[in-house]
Design goal:
Order of helices and strands: EHEHEHEHEHEHHE
CATH topology: Rossmann fold
CATH architecture: 3-Layer(aba) Sandwich
Number of strands: 7
CATH superfamily: NAD(P)-binding Rossmann-like Domain
Helix content: 25-40%
CATH class: Alpha Beta
Distance between the termini: 44 Å
Strand order of the largest sheet: 3-2-1-4-5-6-7
Radius of gyration: 18 Å
Structural class: alpha/beta
Number of domains: 1
Number of helices: 7
Strand content: 5-15%
């Protein structure tokens, strides 16, 4: 995609920026002119993303923060004098297929809910307060999941994404009068983040006949964050899934 300069002069904070979808979003925002604050628990890979942005002529800084902890969200925030126009919450701990209803530990449950819901809300609320006080018509985007509404056999992940979706809606309703838009993007089957696509048979289950990519998600993120394309969109979740949600998971009769 040829850059359009959609966010020239604006600053963005992206959590989970060190890998996969978060990384793609940080790079895409930088290509569109945004100064990107890359936040992740993986300091080495996060620094590499920021370096890649700078080498490409963009502006970025890497910040290490553990959003699964009680106070880790505070480290993600810039100083009060640094305004943020966009917040993308992509951070989420790796998920294991083995962590089912009777297997998931308390620590794993807490880390997933803290990162997705608690830290996501607290960062968003603080940034929103600064946006409102500074008269910034900000935008926020939460990376949720199709499994915010349908079971995934890993209850902590589905519960976290469902909670995150409601956080997005509450924020959208509260912040709309200040001109701050809040939405969510629900990826389909995108390898990475602990999701091993090779373990599943997707043949015939994705109408567009392929798995998704992080870049597919980033392209839609740009549209949702841009007032040029989505100025009248808030409080909604956009599924970027190749149509997988349309699939009837109950096998049809042979005839």
């Amino acid at each position: 995609m040829t850059p359009m300069g959609l966010f020239r002069g604006e600053a963005a904070l992206v959590t989970g920026a060190a890998s996969n979808i978060g990384r793609a979003m940080a790079l895409a925002l930088a290509r569109e002119g945004a100064r990107v604050r890359c936040v992740d628990v993986d300091a080495v890979r996060n620094a590499s993303v920021a370096e890649d942005i700078v080498k490409s002529g963009g502006a970025a800084e890497a910040v290490t923060a553990d959003l699964s902890s009680t106070d880790g969200w505070r480290a993600a925030l810039p100083g009060p004098s640094q305004p943020i126009a966009m917040f993308v919450h992509s951070a989420s701990p790796p998920r294991r297929e083995a962590d089912g209803v009777f297997a998931v530990s308390e620590a794993t449950w807490d880390a997933m809910l803290n990162t997705n819901v608690r830290s996501g809300f607290l960062i968003a609320r603080e940034i929103a307060s600064r946006m409102r006080d500074g008269g910034i018509k900000g935008r926020m985007l939460f990376i949720t999941s199709l499994h915010a509404e349908t079971p995934r056999s890993i209850p902590h992940y589905a519960a976290a994404k469902a909670g995150q979706t409601m956080v997005m809606k509450e924020l959208a309703r509260a912040l709309g009068p200040a001109g701050i838009r809040v939405n969510a993007l629900a990826p389909g089957a995108v390898p990475g983040g602990g999701f091993n696509a090779a373990a599943f048979d997707f043949s015939g289950k994705i109408p567009l006949q392929r798995l998704g990519t992080a870049e597919d998600m980033a392209s839609m993120a740009l549209a949702l964050l841009s007032d040029r394309f989505s100025a009248y969109v808030t409080g909604t979740t956009v599924a970027v899934d190749g149509g997988i949600a349309l699939y009837n998971w109950i096998p049809l009769p042979p005839d």
